[in-house]
Structure formats: C-alpha cells, structure tokens
Amino acid sequence: MFDEIEGLCDKVVSGMQVTTMTAATLAPSQDVAMLTAAAVAVERVRRSADAAQLAILAELARRGFETGPDGSTQETRAPAGEVAELASDTIALALGCSDHDARTRSRLAVRLGDDLDPLIRPLMDGAVTERTLRLVADETQDASRDAAAAVVAHVLAPMRGTDVPRIEALDRHDLAQACRRVLDRTDPGWRESRAEVNRRERTDVRTYPGPLGTTELVACLPSETAHVLMAGVCEIARERQREDPDLRVGPARALALADLALRGVEVSTHITLGLALVRGPSDPGEAEVAGDVRAAGETRTAGETRTAGETRTPGEARTAGDGRTAGETGTAGGARAVSAAEVRLIDVGATGEPWVGGVEIPRIGWVPGSVVQQVVERLDSRVTRALLDPETGTVLETSTTGYVPPPSVRRLVELRDTRCRMWGCDRPAVACDLDHATVWPGGPTCGANLSALCRHHHRVKHAPAWSYVLHADGSAEWVSPAGTQRLTWPTAHAPAEATAHAPAEVASHDTTGAPDPSSPTQPTTSGAVAGHEAVGHGVVSTAPPF
Predict the structure, then answer these.
(1) Could you list the mean pLDDT of each consecutive 10-residue stretch along the chain, which spans 546 residues?
(2) Is the N end or the C end of the chain the one with fewer CB atoms within 10 Å?
C-alpha cells in the first residue's frame, strides 16, 4: 500500500496542472465570489498535502545511521518524540529546502506523531494551516505531557456558543493566549521558568539578506531592553524627520538605529575584495598582460620608451623600464589594464571614481561598490585584494606539506567559497572549517583539496552513509543516505573557456604594506576562482554557471 503513495501524488499533481491551466484561461471571466471559492478549494488541497508530508516526516525524522561493530552502516530509529541526529540534513537535501525549514518541520512532524497527534486531523481536513499547528507546538515545547494534552483538548474543543473548534476560530494572537491560559492552570510557574531560559539561551542578533542593497537585522532581546531600544529609535527618527520632512518613517528608524548602535563606537574593519584583471576591448588575437595591453607575442627590449597615443604591432619589443605618458592606451578601444604593482600601491579613495564593484556578502546581501568605497574611505579599514582571471576562473595558489592550511591558502579558499559548501547553507566561509576533501596526508593541503564547511556540515560530511566529493572543476557533490544528490559551486566560480589562457597573477595583501617577496610558499596547482570582467568587481558577487 505504501508504494502507491507516489502514484496517488502523481494524480494529484496532474489535477493541479489542469486546475492551473483552467484558472489561467478562464479566471478573467469569473466574478470575485467564484475566484474566492476556487482559491479556498486549492488552499484546502495544499493544507491536506502538508498533513500527508508531515505524517511521512514524522517517521523519516526519526531515522538515522551509525557504524556497526563490523564497520557496516546500520539504520537506527530515535525514540518517540525525538529527531534523529542529522535526519533534518537528509530531509533538507531531499526537499530542496533550507536547514532551518527542515529542522523546524522535522520537530513539528515528530511532535505530531507523538503528544500532539490529534492536531493532524484539522490540517488533513484543510481547516487550519501548518503554521497554526507550529504555534501550538511552540507554546507547549517545554510543557509536561499532561499539560500538552490539556492544551490540545482545549484548542480542539468548540468555542463557547459555536460548533467551530478554537484552533479554527481564533487568530494567532488569541490562540496563543488560549494555550497559555491552559498552561497557567495545569503547570503553574511555567512562564517564569521558560522566560528565564529564553533570556539566557535564546537572545541573539542575526542578519539576513533583504531587498537588493539592504540587510535585515533581526534581534531577539529581553523584552524590557527591546522596549527601551525601540523608544529611543522612534525618538531619534522623529528628530531626523523634523530635519528632513521628506524622510519616510522606515528609513528614519533605520538611520536612528544605526545612530544608536554606532554612537561613541570606534569601528575598525578588514575587508577582503577580489579584483579581476581587465579584459578591455581589443582585437580577437590580442593577448593582455597585467599593467599593459599588447599584441600577442610582443616582447620588450632595454631602454624602450613610448609617447602618448603610440600603438604597437605584433612582435614589438618592450622592457620593464619602458615609460609612457598620461593618457596612453595599448588598444584601439582605449582599455588599460591595471598592473599588480599598481593595485598593490593604490591608495584607497585616491581617485574620484569608485574603484571596486558591488560585493555579495553571505547572510548580509549585496553592497554597492560606491558604498564599499565610502566604508573604506571613512572607516579605519584594512583591505586585502587578490587579482583573479575573470575568464578562466583559475588562479595560482600556495600549498603546504603540513595539515594546517597557511593563511594564504585559507584566504584563497574563503575568497573562493565565501560560504559553507553544503547545499543551502549560508554560513560565511570565514566562520567555517577548512575540510580536506581527500583526507590528509593522502590529499594535499591546497585550495584544490580544501573547501569551507561549517562545523555542523563538517560533521555531516563524515557521518555514516553520507558522501562528499570535491571535483577538479571546483564543484562539490553531496549524496545523502536517501540517495539524494546535490551539487554546489564556489560562489566565485566561472567556467573555463574553450580557449586556453595563461593563469592570472595573484596578489593578496594589505594596503598597509607591500607583500613580502621572500615568502617561502611556492605556487602549485590552480583553483576555481573568478571575478567580473572589469577592474574592481568583487568576485563574491559572481554567480555559478547554472
């Protein structure tokens, strides 16, 4: 019977496909009442599908794997009401959702299969949403089984004077209050004990990417602290609006919060940017070198000098001492590459034009290049830069014979990956472990064999029945115990072109001083890293080729 579920779901999907096509064709000719009825009918199907999936997840979330005495992988089953370790990772990969969503749904599913079992019925009937059930589960998270049972009985009972269960009739605020009143009667003191735990363990500040160019800053604070903070934000926002009547309330509050947070604080930042070598307009056969744009095969001779506007022909020679005047260009299109030496010595903010492009920061979002320059100019910042080939996606890297990656290799991997290499994980690479894909010493400590994995997914990688392979093109292949396969690419990844290119020079350093030419590290293999096709674009904003 269980093997028929996929067939039944295929029929439901087919029915929804017909519904979609019918709605797209006939909806413009229907009145509001008919459209509303159709939307309610589809919502009922969606909720019922959620119930079916949660019933499956209630068991799947309890399944785990361990290594047996003989070295074989054995399937395990967690006790009732508990989620097996790493089970949510298997679910996240299979459903293509985030780790957070998988963990949240796994916990709810296990609760619905245990002490909240009766609540699955109204969801299956399409009467309530999964979010409503999650509210009841959250309110009873730390309650005793008897208290949780009392809450379930209360919310499923009809509202006074009606036949409609409270869980259907009450909005979220009133339903939460109903749950708390029952807990007050059955488990006195629960509010104080939970509040104490929450204030000690669950307060936090986190960031999430907002609309393009913005970041959502989410804070979980003690209630009295949040109340005072919000009052201060509103007061400063009103002052700003009095000064600028055109300023809207939202932006005024955002500026006020920044004022409060940074008032009296000295900020010192360290920004890492990957800068691509220029590939300006040129003839198809022309090759470019950092600091110069020349025809293919050109060489240099001692003492050569140039004047403004002078052009070259193939085979023309030039020396390192060759001088040129301001405004000279090396191609008809007027493009000029910036040499590694120039990039090393350039002073931040020395030019009037933004010298760096937008940068995508994990868990933060996209920061415009002009804003990055302002930050660099106004704050006490140190800038680390790397020159990267925007076409081939390859750079020279350094390696070591030891286990621990040297700082140069760590910077390379962090710049290339920018975040954890598990599918769907957005933990920044700077907060991750550097994992050897092929275990050291069998695999070298170099960028081609290293990837950024957060501590949790580092454990997942080594867990029984999980498979992780880092391919030569920089892609990482994950296979879960259920057989789900997912590929991830370095954030700063570009596919190699069919035409071979020479590896680009790499410079990674601080503007506070020139790099040490006596560094003992030696260039070895190449890793997949790329930037944009213009000077100063942050490689971390380059999208993988899919």
Answers:
(1) 90 95 95 95 96 96 91 90 93 92 95 94 96 95 91 95 94 93 89 87 89 89 90 93 93 92 70 43 37 39 42 41 39 37 36 49 63 58 46 46 79 85 89 89 84 92 91 89 91 49 37 38 36 32 36
(2) N
Buried b (16+ CB within 10 A) or exposed e, 436-465: bbeeeeeebbbbbbbbbbbebbbebbebbb
215 three-class SS: strand
β 485-488/476-479 pair status = antiparallel
d(CA 349, CA 376) in angstroms, rounded, equals 8
Give me 330's structure tokens.
């090396």
- Is there a cis peptide before residue 28, judged by omega within 30 degrees of 0? no
Contacts of 238 (CB under 8 A, 6+ apart): 252
Report the distance separating Cα 437 and Cα 415, nearest Å.
18
Give the residue among 501, 509, 496, 523 at the shortest CA–CA distance from 289.
501
SS3 sequence, 359-402? EEECCCEEECHHHHHHHHHHCEEEEEEEEECCCCCEEEEECECC
What values do phi and psi take at 458, rounded to 5? -65, -40
Determine contact, residues 32/108, Cβ cutoff 8 Å.
Answer: no
CA distance 356 to 537: 5
- pTM for the predicted model, two decimal places: 0.66
Cα–Cα distance measured from residue 54 to residue 44, given in angstroms and rounded to the nearest whole number = 15
Distance CA 484, CA 470 (A): 17
- Contact present, 468 and 493 (Cβ < 8 Å): no
What number of other Cβ atoms are within 10 A of residue 115's Cβ? 22
Structure tokens at 332: 């008809």
Q: Quick check: 74 and 68 in contact, CB under 8 A?
A: yes
Q: How far apart are CA 97 and CA 85, in angstroms?
A: 18
The residues near 515 (Cβ < 8 Å, ≥ 6 apart) are 344, 507, 508, 509
Q: Which residue has the tokens 């005495």?
A: 69
Name, in order, each residue with C-beta under 8 angstroms of 435's C-beta and a sequence gap of 6 or more. 450, 451, 452, 453, 458, 461
Tokens of 496: 């190699």
CA 204 to chain CA centroid, nearest Å: 19
CA dihedral 146, 148, 150, 153 (to 10 degrees): -130
